[in-house]
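Subject: sequence -> structure tokens, single chain

Hey, anyone have a minute? Need the predicted structure for the following. Not urgent.
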Amino acid sequence: MMKLSPIKSAIDWGDLAPLQLRAKVVADGIFAGSHRSARRGAGVEFAGHRVYVPGDELRFIDVRASMRHERIVVRHFETETERALRLVVDATASMGFRGKGAPGSKLAYASLLAAALARVSIASGDPVGLDFVGGGDRARRIPPSARSETFERVVAVLEELTAEGDARAVPGLVDEGLGIALRGARRGSAIVVLSDLLDLPDDAAESIAALGMRGRPLAVVEILDPIEATFPFDGPIRLRALESGPGDVTVVQTDGPGVRDAYLAKLEARARHFRETLARHGGALVRSVTTDDPIAVVRDVLRAIARPAEGQELVSDARTSVPPRKG
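Reply:
Had a minute. Here:
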């Protein structure tokens, strides 16, 4: 009888520590300049022509281009502008899982991605804020700041996290964490949610997608352990519910090969539901497993918040144990 390893409340870092050093290595591997604003103004880079409309400044009229096109056109420019990045880390109990052979728990991997994104953003001069779903008393939120010490603050909070909370059993746990990020995010702020998307309330997809309203780029990073992504069990297995407490333990005995296809189908259906729901609000789903190269995943996230596209699903470039999934 096979049994999954127990879930640890403290972060099971495995090979993903020390966080500060690992995050710096990931950030250094990211292509520079991927975090640009799409807002227009009198900036430093020429971005093309458009037809003149009343109210445009006359000094931007391009006389030669207007003569060539036989209508009045103005020059416009693309500027580098500050865009706050808000990170929302799922620190509920299910994120504490680490399967055999995984480099670390899902929460450890999420923390690495979050810290690397924070470093990239701060290096670009953009403020970074940190919010949580679950995580207990140690999940201390950090308001957006672009100060140089913000990266160290983000790392310090992530290092002290515990995987606590049951999003299904505790009403409002998800909405509370998302609500803080939603209320504090200005128009144009980018939001990245890092979660396994497991054991969430039925309306979680809509709640998360709402973060992408009012022009806020949104990327949701699905983080699974390789065992969860492939269900590789042979023979009888005994499974324990990821977010059941000591007094409410749910255990299921089943046959691995007999339920594998149905399980994987449900996993894909859930991902499709999140992708479609996010797309309606301009958000993107980035799918990953904890054995993926974190540099590739962070690049996918930066692409998603820089150029969000409807219906976009990104699967990280460098899977080490799980082939890209179709969805």
